[in-house]
Structures are given as structure tokens and as C-alpha cells.
Amino acid sequence: MEGLIGYRVAERYELTEILGAGSFGAVFKATDLKAGPEGPFHYAVKVLLKPEPDSINEILLEREITLHERVTGHENVVGLHDVFRDDTRIFLLLDLAEAGTLKDVIMNNKFYTAKDRDEKVKSLFLSILDGLEHCHKLDVFHRDLKPENILCSSDGKSTRIADFGLATDEELSDTFGCGTEAYISPEAVDPRNPCPTTIPYCQDLWALGVILVNIIARRNPWNAATIDDLGFKVYLQHPDYLYKVLDISNEVAELLINIFEPNPFKRLHIQQIRQRVKAIERFFKSP
């Protein structure tokens, strides 16, 4: 994929720098050679190998494009502006986030030494809630929410949800383990679950709690929400466990207990989470 540096997509978007790569393909920074005086001057371009016709990979890719286009237009969702195709590749023209991902912010010590760190946590998390609520209102359920799939603004106070590769618009699913294990809710991660279906909406709500722990404590609460995981098992037996072992305030700990509700039908909804987050003054236990 590095050989694409200098390549011009649709004779307009010149690939100038590789931002990331994986089994899916690669993401490049691109310059708009025909941008107006007010820009935007740069985009991200996701380059994928074209899947075989009528294959499951083609079906999944077309689903990703369709759902991403549906939610484009909200300030807290990465916009998909165009799709280009040649004989062997597909190019997705996306918003560019110069500040990187939420994971990059979490790894930056400056975020945690700032005097306004509580305000920043609240602003960041509320923007994630706003983006996800927009998606849910359009019946798009992400199923892979995590810091790596959330892009941040340059001031570190706002976010945009990215990567809809595992998203679905089905209210019920018979797929278990869809997403990244540490962020998947117990009813969706473990096939031993007696319920034959999962609820993608509720899976996203659970992931919000894991992300909040990440933002404050810079770690996951457990490796997986299964009875085989010692950390999760202790939490089920002692709900105050997270407050004791993490640098989270009592208000945050109480919120997490209601987000990490094993029964998906009793889990807090986005509007309820937002109301409680707005009322929190301190997110950290330590001063």
C-alpha cells in the first residue's frame, strides 16, 4: 500500500502520507487538489482491496458503506463523503482528524495533568454520547465502539465516531463475539448465554461504560465480561470493586454500576447516561 503515495484518487485527491494499515487495507492522508479557498484541504482516504463479486466480504463492505452514508452529517460522526472504485480497489473519502484517536489522547500525560481534566472528560464523553445517539436514531448500531474507533478534535474536547465495519441496522442479532472482546457486553460476548439473540443497541451501551473507564483510568475494567474472567467475576460479586481499584470518583462508580448491568433490559439508556454525566463534578478519585 505504501506504493500508493502520490497516487491521485479521481484525479483530485492526492495520497500524501500513510496513517495506518491492517488486514483491511490502509488509511492515507490526502490533499484535495481542487479545494476551494476555505477548504477542507485534507481528507482521510481508506483504501480497500475490492472483494470478490457476490462474496460475503462484498456484502459486508457494501453494508458498511450504506450504514456509514446513512449517519454522515453529524458533527460527532466521521463523514463518508464519497466512494471511488477502480478494477482492484475501493477508496472511501472520509473526514480527517489531525489529533488522532481517543486512544492517542488517553496515552498523552498532558490530558491527565491539566487543571481542567474533569471538564475535558465530561466534554469528550458527552460528544461520544451525542454521536452514538444520532446513529441509534437512524437505526445504526456500531458494535465495535472503542478508543481506537473514536477520533478526536485538535483541542481534545470533541470526538467523532469512526469505522462502521461491524455496524448493523438489525435490532436483534444471532452473532456472538462481534466486536473487540474487552468492550462486548456479557450477553453478546459469550455463546453460552441462554438467550439465542443479542441486542446491538444494548451492546453499544455497555461499550460506553468500558470507554469511560478507559478515559479516566487509562485501562480496561476487565479482559472480557465473562464468568471466566477474574476481574469481571469479582465485579459481579462486589459492585464497588471498580471504585476500590481504579482512580474513579464515587459518582462515576455509581454510574458504571448502572451501565454495567448484566441484564441488558435494565441497562441505562443514552439519555439517562447523559443526564447523569452532566451532573458529575469530579470524575477522578484523586485530587
UniProtKB/TrEMBL annotation:
It catalyses: L-seryl-[protein] + ATP = O-phospho-L-seryl-[protein] + ADP + H(+); L-threonyl-[protein] + ATP = O-phospho-L-threonyl-[protein] + ADP + H(+). It comes from the Eukaryota. Keywords: ATP-binding, Kinase, Nucleotide-binding, Serine/threonine-protein kinase, Transferase. InterPro entries: Kinase-like_dom_sf, Prot_kinase_dom, Protein_kinase_ATP_BS, Ser/Thr_kinase_AS. GO terms for biological process: signal transduction. Its EC number is 2.7.11.1. GO terms for molecular function: ATP binding; protein serine/threonine kinase activity. It is an enzyme of class 2 (transferase). Residues 13-284 form the Protein kinase domain. Gene3D superfamilies: Transferase(Phosphotransferase) domain 1. SUPFAM superfamilies: Protein kinase-like (PK-like). ATP binds at residue 46. Belongs to the protein kinase superfamily. This is non-specific serine/threonine protein kinase.
